[in-house]
Amino acid sequence: MIIGIDLGTTHSLAGIMTDQGPRLVANALGEVLTPSVVGLADDGALLVGAAAHERLHTHPRLTAAAFKRYMGSDRELILGNRRFRPEELSALVIRSLLDDVQAHTGAKATEAVISVPAYFSDAQRKATRNAATLAGIRVERLINEPTAAALAYGLDQRDAESRFLVVDLGGGTFDVSVLELFDGVVEVHASAGDNFLGGEDFVDLLAELALADLKLDASTLAGGDVAVLRNRLETVKKRLSREPDIEVDLPIDGASHCWRVSQERFIAAAAPLVERMRAPIQRAMRDARLSADQIDEVVVVGGASRMPMVVRMVGTLFGRLPLRHLNPDEAIGLGATAMAGLKSRHAALEETVITDVCPYTLGVETVMAGSDGNWLSGTFQPLIERNTTIPASREQTFVPLQRDQKELELRIFQGESPRVANNILLGALKLQLPPFDEPQQMPVVVRFTYDVNGLLEVEATLVVSQNTTRMVIEQNPGLLSAEEIERRLTALAALKLHPREQQANLALITRAERLYEEFLGEDRQAVMTCLVAFRSELESQDNDRIRHARHHFAQWLAQFDQVAPL
Amino acid sequence: MSVDFPWNELGMDGPGDRRAIKRAYAVRLKSCRPEDDAEGFARLRQAYEIAQAWATDQDGQPIAPVFVAASPEGDDRPPAPPASPAPSEMEPEPWTLARRDNDDPQALAQALLALEPAALARELVESPALWKLEVKDRLSAILARCVIAAPGAVSSETVAILAASFHWDDVAECRRLAQLHIPVDVLQQILQAAQLRRVVDEGGPDVPPLAQNLLRWGAGPKAWAYALRWKGAANVAAYLSQFPPPVARLVFGDNVIRFWNLVGCDGGVLALHMLRLNLILLGLVLWVRSPGYPEVSMGDFLRALGAPAKIMNALILSIASFKLSVIYGFQPISQPVPLGWSRRWRLAAIAVLIAVMAVMAAFTPLIVLTGLSLAIAGLVCVTMLKFTSSLIWGVSTLAFIGAGLRGLQELSLFRPVVERILSFDGFWFGLMLAALLMVVAEMVVREADAVLRWLPPRMSSGIPATAVLLVIWLFAQWF
Ligand SMILES: Nc1ncnc2c1ncn2[C@@H]1O[C@H](COP(=O)(O)OP(=O)(O)O)[C@@H](O)[C@H]1O
Ligand SMILES: [Mg+2]
Prior knowledge:
The structure holds two protein chains of two kinds.
Chain A lengths: L1 E6 L3 E8 L2 E4 L9 E2 L1 E4 L5 E3 L1 H9 L4 E3 L11 E3 L2 E3 L1 H20 L5 E6 L5 H13 L3 E7 H8 L9 E8 L4 E9 L2 E10 L4 H15 L9 H18 L4 E8 L2 E8 H25 L9 E5 L6 H11 L12 H14 L1 H6 L1 E5 L4 E8 L5 E10 L4 E2 L1 E7 L8 E8 L9 E9 L11 E7 L5 E7 L4 E7 L8 H13 L8 H16 L2 H19 L3 H21 L3
Parallel strand pairs in A: 1-10, 10-11, 12-17, 14-18
Antiparallel strand pairs in A: 1-2, 2-3, 2-4, 5-6, 5-7, 8-9, 12-13, 13-14, 15-16, 18-21, 19-20, 19-23, 22-25, 23-24, 25-26, 26-27
Helix pairs in contact in A: 1-12, 2-3, 4-9, 5-6, 5-7, 7-8, 12-13, 12-14, 13-14
Chain B lengths: L5 H4 L8 H12 L8 H22 L5 H5 L35 H9 L3 H10 L6 H17 L6 H11 L4 H9 L4 H19 L4 H9 L4 H11 L2 H8 L4 H18 L5 H22 L8 H8 L2 H23 L9 H22 L3 H20 L5 H21 L4 H9 L2 H22 L1 H6 L3 H21 L1
Helix pairs in contact in B: 2-3, 5-7, 6-8, 8-10, 11-12, 12-17, 13-15, 14-15, 14-22, 15-17, 15-20, 18-19, 18-20, 19-20, 20-21, 20-22, 20-24, 22-24
Organism (chain B): Magnetospirillum sulfuroxidans
Keywords (chain B): Membrane, Transmembrane, Transmembrane helix
Protein name (chain B): J domain-containing protein
């Protein structure tokens, strides 16, 4: 069975193809969104999802989140006394999703289509594949998130050719893609984005507003207070998407502060953040050489796009209402599942071809004659422009500058600035030049070849001697070797996930524990009493009784959602 | 790769419309998928793109509206830079561009430039008229022309806002503007100057990294940033007024002067500092060479030139300005020619000179002072400034020769010869003439691009100058 997985920064989802189309699978708590958080319980067992998310604030040292950001790097995260690679943490999330699928269908999934951001590099993609291997599943293919979103909307089912703009505002990243679909071809025209813009920034903004109103200084707050504050404001943010006015209790420094904020004020304060989304959209449009009226459909996905101001901005930019009838945080998961469906029906597989683009500009450093005849050194000369369809191969001819030059150094850069100083150096190639009279007589042909996996090969040929120097640039500083994967696989297999049937109880307990820490006085006592009562129910080992108690406990805890939004 | 007839590759009989090309491409694509057959795909893709472009030409329906939207030259002429808003009798209405949706881009550009920076930033974000990509593309070109035509008329803040809004720091946009015959390198220089000026105004602590960044680009800003690190801009400006601009132009060239003007300073100051350094160096030579030099103390020497503090000041700024002239003059050689051999060569030469000085030092302690200080000065020039111009090289060579002669004079063996040389009046004349000639030669070299290309890498540029000097000196001898 092939399943679809959206491995998000904040949430992950898994789906299966059914006769009625793609269907997302609920986890043990009955929710389709599983927070991408991994933690260690007090007894050393692993927690994934909601329970770990609750403990993110009470046990920051035992919990890890947002590790997708470190995929493809050699950074390790520390949980308790164990070090984890981002791949391993992702693997644990995938494993928990697989358990959910198994509980749901009774069958074990063997293959998956996993969605990754369009801007993910070769290293990041490989790391995602490795994460799947560590979770014991084969990756049938990786699909770009915007492409998945387009599939979820069934845009590939249209008869005529049509062009789409997909906007994805997630927890920490913002992505834009311009796609065209025709005759079973999904062609990505351009991708752009901002890797440091997402739903979290809006929470930061609310925190700033609140602290300014309460005349508090962020730097003097205790770490615990900050966590509680962010947690409450996250809820405020979500509610502001629906309600015009919200009042919330913020417990800071042992005192409870009441804070009011209106949607209007939030929107005004968030204008600069929303504004930052405009540049990538315009860049993608410009790169795709399309104007707004040439776009047939605008699709908005990502949890943070639930904020009306985001949709409004995109709407005004394109003069129409974006498609939004799917749940924005589920669209990508559904699309990945739809892709998995296409993969398993072999006939359909033959039909769809997806072509992708290179998200960055690649080129070399040169010296250029300026408009006033002066020489400008450090000028970036692109060979492969961003949003070129890949695989691509491009060449250009360069000549040395000096008559008695003996060596030519080609420095290879990636970036969007006309000056190499602001771009990223990928590598350098040195060519020895034979003696010559005029620079024009010593042309060097430089060829860049960029493949579907994001691998760049540079070839420099000295035309006179036909001597070719080659260099392959691989940006994968932190990839696991095959043996390393094998070793970690056994190590991970030894780690036990918390039993699935207990996860719902555990999530409740961790939530009650968090509330206990947040509250003071009477409320605190009440939470404690109920928690003890619930624990003793659990000891009874009677499933019916436990279910009953869990139901009541959950209802009881829900009252606090009203007083202080969680 | 055969691209003569792209329709073959696509499996078409001949040219078709865009729809037909797409259909053919889609069919072919199934047999050469990008992930399985990279070469086949590359070929197909190229054929597809060519065929598409051809079809676009045919039906005149552009797929690239951005390139067509901005008309080349002609009506995109920069409007005259806006003067400060004319005082009107009526209270002006709060002005939004939204109401001017249908106006032509020229007027829009004018109106934007007339706004205060804060209002401009707001307009660029809020005015729906500017949200349309086509309008923005055209505006970008017009505004870029305006800024280039009269850089001084647009405040650095405005320039920064425009650059951010219109992506003037993006390769793709720069290429688009270049296709419209807009000198993007000048635009870049203006952006940098604006950035620099803002940093100077704010006096932020991040000047050094900025300076480093700027150091890798362009002519003027890097040296200016360097100068800034040592001394304030005010200090530089104080020296300025006394120097006639034509001389500055002669010494530094238009490019640098334009930059100085951009950052709000006159180019003359650079020339002044350069001359000061020359004077100091020449003074050192004279000092070493003066018959009564053992009696002249360092203090006397400094006093002769002016207040010690002033001299230090001048020295520091001179080195900065020197660096500027050097970088400016020899910039093209800084890349992509490797620096390796010439630098080693130069260091070796310095080492030899130091050794010679040390040997001389064994005979007279005064020579130790002079020789070593000169050698160290030379070393500093060469290593710290990384490379040197013919002028500094020539002048320090002069100093070395002077010191060397002095040393020889102390040695009884050569005294008669040296005495004869030194007693000759033409020597001083020749020395001065040589220095002057070197300056002139260097200017010629800097101004003439062709000559510059012809010049061998930087180290050797010192040799001809020194050779000229020696020839003149010998010539003077002969008289
Ligand atoms: N109703 C809502 N209003 C505002 N923001 C929301 C809402 N629901 C979810 N979000 C935000 O969406 C983000 C998560 O989006 P998601 O697409 O799941 O991200 P990712 O793909 O990175 O995992 C979070 O920052 C969350 O706060
Ligand atoms: Mg996502």
